[in-house]
Amino acid sequence: MSYAPLPQRFLEMARTQPLERAQLFKVGDRWEATSSAELLRRAAGLSAALAELGVSAGDRVALLSANRPEWHVADFAILGLGAVSVPLYFRESAERIVYILNDSGARVAIAVGEEQVAALVGVRDQLKTVAHIIVGGVPAGGDGNVLHLDTLLAGAGDAHIAAYAQRAATVKPEDLATIIYTSGTTGEPKGVMLTHLNLSSNTSESIAEHNHGPGDVALSFLPLSHVYERTIDYTYLFYGVTVAYVDRMEALPAALLEVKPTMMAAVPRVFEKVYGNIVDKGRQATGSKRKIFDWAMGVAHKAVPWRGYAQRVGFNIRVQWHIADALVYKKIRAGIGGSIRHFISGAAPLAKELLEFYWSVGIPVYQGYGQTETSPVVSTNTPKHNKLGTVGPPLRGVEVRIADDGEILVRGALVMKGYWNKPEATREVVGEDGWLATGDIGFVDPDGYLSITDRKKDLIKTAAGKFVAPQPIENKLKTSPYISNAAVVGDRRKFIAALLAPNFAAVAAKAREVGLEFTSNTELAAHPWVRELIQGEVDRLTAHLAQFEKVKRFALVDHDFTFDGGQLTYTMKLKRRVIEEKYAGEIAEMYADVEEPRPQPL
Fold first, then answer.
1. How far apart are CA 512 and CA 195, in angstroms?
2. Residue-level pLDDT at 2
3. What are the phi and psi torsion angles at 20 (to 5°)?
């Protein structure tokens, strides 16, 4: 099957599905709309300006911006020239900005937003190949050594659109579209080269069984520098879905209530946080409200076979569910806008128990799987094919097989062109036969649904030679209302242990019930009563595990793992090496009385 390059699909969208509200963005207290015609006009105008600056096919152009309308203006402007966009995380460190721009050889760099402009301008003396800097989202004037986006767009019109269409027609599916630098959970970041074919095919096939289009509204809040949100946003735009941009995570709860989206992509950490907030709010209720909440949660559990797996349940359970829906579940849905038709979860496995909860209260969550090197979606659950606990069947045209050691291998139009300037690294993961070694461990069930066990490099081998997958254990622990985050350790150790970040608000509320008050998170994490509470949760949630998988000991940390703290990637996955280095003392203490001291590096 053929897939048109991205700028050609962009033009087709503007021609066949014109929208008055293609983009929404909050300015002050108002959500302002941009039409698809205006989006095209601005992209065409900037594309012409880039051409005048000497950007041509194959040249790299860097883009540093939070999620906002200008991101897609710049992206489509770059792609329409046959040039290569190099997106950066909008809160990227100065060191990585310099590395990525110099490694990619970017000729032009675009920054939108005061923080982003300051970050880029602050390192321009270290940029070896950047000839021009374009800034937006800041007042014009001031620094005369930069070009202003609004100035470049002034006067853009039909002639620019015609020229854009003419240039876009020369872009081929096999041409390089973007270089996306990995977040770097370990080692030096690598630039993943994705072609128009990679992204366009994935955009089409990943939503083939999802029914959405004009009239739908989607929130875009995961970083557009990551391929997950980027590909999904292409899907939204190409199929006439209004995209509402949220430029910082803190604004997400308000945006859900104000925009009332019908669909949204998120990562497991978001679903964990939302679930935690639901439980916290319910348990803060008193009297009859608390009794109704607890009863409704029990009904949700009993209704899982029906709501999550389409199995038959008794008439009594169905009646109770409808009563609980009217009293509790509708309020839960209203708390996330009240209009969600489906969520998509990706980037990491989501605990099966959380999936069951969401489905049971009337919030469909479809889990998928992929990575940057696969553009990104390999497989996904859909309204037509859904099995909770799996990441769905492979997309049409995608081949998946499992290697002898359990590693998932993938082949198809979605597989990257390679790593930028790293041919050896490319050959390590992509064979001559086109099979990509994903680094993930999993299996395909008899019905063709893929399940992910863990990252191959994250598997823990105990001193007794037993292999333990940490993610399923961590996901189970995080279903506790009192545990916010978990990092399982134990490689080459006698037993499994864990670093646990308490849900400080929930633990403090529970402590007040027995007359305890804490003056700080540090005091809370160190208190014996809290340890006893958490120990009970660990024992309860890991009772089903094999003996060698059980968490024998844990240490409580006095703050959650965060991106700003360096412990999470910007898709909120654990940076295990960073965490183990930061908490080396706490880890050593958990094993101090059962192991010989380990040699320290010289």
1. 56
2. 84
3. -75, -25
Q: To which residue do tokens 């069951």 refer?
A: 356
- Residue reference for tokens 């003419």: 166
Q: What would the pLDDT profile of 76-116 be if each residue is shown by its tens digit?
A: 999 999 999 999 999 999 999 999 999 999 999 999 999 99
Has residue 185 got a pLDDT over 70? Answer: no
Residue 430: DSSP 8-state: B
Please report, for the chain, the start and end positions of each structural domain, with discontinuous segments joined by +.
6-171, 268-338+340-456, 459-591
Q: Which fold has domain 268-338+340-456?
A: Rossmann fold (3.40.50)
Q: How far apart are CA 25 and CA 9, in angstroms?
A: 23
* Whether the predicted pLDDT of 600 surpasses 80: no
CATH fold match for the domains 6-171 and 268-338+340-456: yes
Q: Is it the case that residue 601 has pLDDT exceeding 80?
A: no
Instruction: Choose which CATH entry (3.40.50.2020, 2.40.10.220, 3.40.50.300, 3.30.300.30) describes domain 459-591.
Output: 3.30.300.30
Query: CA neighbours within 13 Å on the CB side: how many for 478?
Result: 30
Query: Could you tell me what percentage of the chain is helix, strand and coil, using 3-state DSSP and rounding each to the nearest 5?
Result: 40, 20, 40
Mention the CATH class of domain 6-171. Answer: alpha beta
pLDDT band at 599 (very low <50, low <70, confident <90, very high): very low
Which two three-digit tokens encode residue 275? 């679930």
